[in-house]
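Suppose you are handed only these lines of text.
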Amino acid sequence: GKAGHDHYMHKEIHEQPNALRQAISGRIDELTGNASLDIDLDERYLQAVDEIHIVACGTSYHAGLYAKELLEPLVDLTVRVDLASEYEVYDGFDSRRTLVVAVTQSGETADTLSAIRRAKAPGMTTLAVTNTVGSTITREVDDSLFIKAGPEIGVAATKTFVSQVTALALFTIYLGRLRGTISAGDGADILENIRRLPNAVQSILDAEPNIKRLAKQYVDSDAFFFIGRGLAYPVALESALKLKEISYAHAEGFAAGELKHGPLALVTKNTPVLAFLSESASPDETFNNVKEVESRGAPVIGLSTSDGTESFCKHTIDIPSLGRLEPLVANVALQLFAYHVANEMGRPIDKPRNLAKSVTVE
Ligand code: F6R
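From them, the structure of the protein bound to fructose -6-phosphate can be written out as follows.
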């Protein structure tokens, strides 16, 4: 049942600290600065891989975009992230040195399954990052990495997003240690942030009354825009998807630097802009974009690790310092924001119109 919550989505947002503890449990080896993952792929193959293709849909695609931002600077690889329905295999890369990673909560998404089948044709090795033991995808790929989030019932993915990114962060450390691009010390530093993630998420959940108040204040807006850079860009996309699917409001996520290339024309005093200003997401550059929208009268809600820049925003939501995982924590604040906007509008949050939990048609 819903255990006292009005909706499964609300329950699942609040389950995130525990879901994360499960995802991490037994997978951190502090001594060697490594992640211990039960992955059976050949280690010599993983050392020789020079390209990763991540395929996924919706929220899982956003987790894939986040993973690219972790993998590329830390592991010596090219990472391409494709919407599963758009994934096509051309010549021009070495299929024996390419790993295809499918990210899928359900393990049943038809678009993702068919992308994996296209990858297997020329002989690429495949890995699924999934929540569902025994799902169709686990039977089709070479190996699976389970995110261990527990069952998710609300149509909107919440706890599985944070768990997917965490599993992919652990995978990044594992690959980097294996290939010698991440030192034991750097591995230990990232693992330390992963270990702190459940409590960091809890601190956001504790700020729910503040976030709910903002949601009520802006529920009648014409549209909602989310802006971020680097690691926060996929989170901006994810936050907009969450809000639009459960509230039916117009919501869009933009790379902060792209605003001036068109979307700025949409900005008015009735379009709140939610801006990711955390330390790990180039806050100074994004702050210039905040000024652009404020000068058009838009109210700005800044998500920040409180370094001072946020004092120029109309409202702020504090995010704990957590290195590369800060935007992931900020995402939880915007799950709550989306939830409370939709709840204020009286929407059927766990079953939005036209949507299904697992999409088994292409
Ligand atoms: C959004 C949402 C969907 C799914 C997408 C992929 O909240 O839930 O966008 O993320 O349908 O589903 P999986 O991860 O099961 O492949």
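What can we learn from it? The pocket of fructose -6-phosphate is lined by residues 57-60, 104-106, 109, 112, 156-157, 241, 245, 358-359 (CB under 6 Å). The first strand starts at residue 28 and ends at 29.
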